[in-house]
Amino acid sequence: MKGSSFMTRPLPSDGQERPAGTRPLASRRERVKVARKWAYLLSSTIYLPLSHDQIERELLGLLDRLLEAVAGDRPDTESAAEVGAELVRLHCVGKTSLQCTVDVLAAALLAPSDPRPADRFPERVARLLGALASGYVEAIRSEAVEQRDTSDQALLNAVRESQREWRASEAQLDEIFLGSPSGIAVTGPDGELVRTNPALHRILDRASNEVAGGNLFEFVHETDRRLLWDGYRDLRDGKIDRLRSRPRFVTKDGDLFQATLTASLLRGAQGYVTIVADEAELMLLQNQLRHQLLHDMLTGLPNRQFFSTHLEHVLHQPNPATLYHVDLDGLSLVTDGLGRKTGDSLLRTAADRLRSVVAGENAMVARFESGKFGILIENSANTPDVVTMIERIDETLTEPVYIDGKGLAVTASFGVVEDLPRTVEPAELLRSADLALRRAKSKGPGRWVRYDPTRDGRARETIGLVATMPGAWENGELGIAYEPLTRLADGEIVGAEARLRWEHPELGLLPRERYLELAEHTALIGALGAWLVKRGWTDVAGGADLPLLVPLTPNQLADPRPAEAIRGILDSAAPAPDRLWLGLPSGALLVGGHEIADNARVLAGLGISLVLLDFGVTPGELALLEDLPVHAVRLGSRLVRHAVDEDSLVLAGAKTMIALVRQAGITVLAGDLETGEQARWWQRAGVELGTGPLFTGGKGPATDIGSLIGGGRAGPPQGR
Description:
- By secondary structure, the chain is α/β, with parallel strands linked by helices.
- It has an eight-stranded mixed beta barrel, surrounded by six helices. Strands 1, 2, 3, 4, 5 and 6 form a six-stranded antiparallel sheet that branches. Strands 8-9-7-12-13 form a five-stranded mixed sheet, sandwiched between helices.
- Residues 319-453 form the GGDEF domain.
């Protein structure tokens, strides 16, 4: 593409060596995702004369350049400015093109879930994006100047032609004078005004009679007159073909303003033609772009970038401050149910109300994304405490607002960080508030939680583990382990259960529950499920005729794609399909609707044996046994622990339920058995098979299924 400096630039890949300081966004998959989102948003702001693939490739190159610029010891603002100029050369000059560019790049570079260096990173990113916007504006200005030069030259040529045939083309000259948005003056050799147009009168802020008979130089500020006069002299002497200058003019009230002046010598006549263009409109555009860079377009509030920079400033002030991370509950229901326009109206109302609550405080309210806001309050002696402030916000937000005749209101969840530590980077404080907000939302809508360094530190570590899970899988840290499936009557091993195992190089063997719940919310969980089935099925292919139980998570069950993958796995190994027992979470089947149940039937149609996990004593769970071809059920861990309480009503109901299940020809398992007493109680209650620490001898799951199959028995150890 003409003007593009990145089309031939090699794109970094995950296998290439990267410079020190490169952020996690250097992962090609993440960069492509950001570039794709960037391309989509830019394409919605203006027509781009490129294919979508070309746009993505161009933007991926620009993103790589920005990542290099932010990774060094000092942000490479010159490189960032070149990226801004490149966007203009790619015709990304729609009304909101810069705004969406800044939103995408700020979200990517300052994402709360990414680790950050502690060297004033938000300020560095702000400087980088500021340089990008500066390069963008300068490129627009340059193009505007170039276009104006072309227009001015055409205008000058027309004036010269008019001078040669003045009488024949006087009407055309009048039209040019009257219609041009630029000021035009025909002057004598000493600058005396021979003819002027209305646009020049407007620019000079004077009536036509105040300009007529005057001299052009008298309207120029006295300090610029000599330099301008020298330019006209060079033009007269033939040293230059055209004069271009930016003198300061003086209005009638004495105010100064800068304008662009272009002059040309009238050939064959003693005089000049001069065009004056006011730069106020360009300055207005620059101010608008600067405002867009730092503010949210929908609500007018500061954006995350502005908020982060302000937060860093507040951290250097003596007064204590409190940070609130606010998330509107149920905003997606309004948007999905009543439309985007209604959702946007509700967001604007919520923004105004948040501002009104803290109007009497030294505070900033910002919109981060979707329904998430940030509030930073510099506390004074009269600032309400956190509880009072949240009550005021809740009371204000829940007041109904009527949009298109419908009364709407929202609640909010809050993550709060009090007494902000001065030594912590703004990005870390925002991450802390986000972690507290996550805990609040996990408790339900309308809750708030203070940041707990201990608890949220563990949550941050766990989230970090999930973020590094794909790399751990690729590096071989993720593996498979097997627990024996034991017959309670005689302790005989009759099968095995496959479980995901993570041997972390620094933290050692990680508890499965620590990372699996969070991994449920990533795209990796589906691939992990299919991989676990494939590994386990391959391991048992040459062993004894024993079943392999592989538990699925709710998201793995809800995804219809693994069924085809499992079909291929079954075809590639010798064991009969019914030896594969897939564990389906009962809770997901109860709340997931017909689609999840249909997925289960598809799996059963492959000849696989279905096992309901975390089975209780509710009527809904019993109804599942009639709806699905269930081979076995495994009692929930909480129910199993009740075995020590002989008077429990829950256990009495469980015994009745077990009898009904066995009458239907369905096998009953008990999971997480820890003591021989528990095993004997459940055996008497009708449970046939069991798993848990009781049968591993305290050694934990085995990494080699052969050691389980060859062991023969896994009865309770002596003394249990």
